[in-house]
Every structure is written in structure tokens, then in C-alpha cells.
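ok so i was messing around last nite and threw this chain in just to see what happens. nothing serious, just curious
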Amino acid sequence: MCLFFDMTTMQPPEQLRAQEAAIKFLEGQMTSSDLVEIMTYTTGVKVVQEWTDNRDTLITALKKLTLAKAPIWRTWRPPQPTKNDDSGSFCCG
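result:
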């Protein structure tokens, strides 16, 4: 199985969710007979981790992925509305 991350089509929160989901899959569903490879695409295809059955090696490689080309995105949270922000309100009349 190849875990392929197309970083050009995912926003930072999606990249983080994909990374977390891949780690969860490896921890909970990967079996000893599974061979897994990790690849990314940004400006070209890159093999992050060659085929292996070593779960720890794969998880380490996933945790080293640079999300959104800036590690700061690992702590990204949506902006909070300000006191006078009514952009989320809807009024019909």
C-alpha cells in the first residue's frame, strides 16, 4: 500500500487531518504482512519512505512531513471572530 499525500490540493488543516489519519491507520490497522510506502507531491513526486513493514519507521516518517511548507501549520486553528464580527450571522426578512 502506498500512502500518497498530494500537498498541492490540500489546505493546511486537511494536510494535518490526513497525516493524523495515516498515523491512526498504521497504529490500528496495519498488519505484520503489510508493506507500506509513503510518497508526497508538491512540485514533484517524492518517496518519503521506501516500502517497509516497520510501523515505527513509517510513523516517524509521517511525523517528519512538512505540512504546508511551514511547520507552523501544525498548530493552525481557525481564526476566532472579533467582538463586532457579524460575518457568520444570517438575517432574512
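not much to say yet. Residues 12-28 form the longest helix (17 residues).
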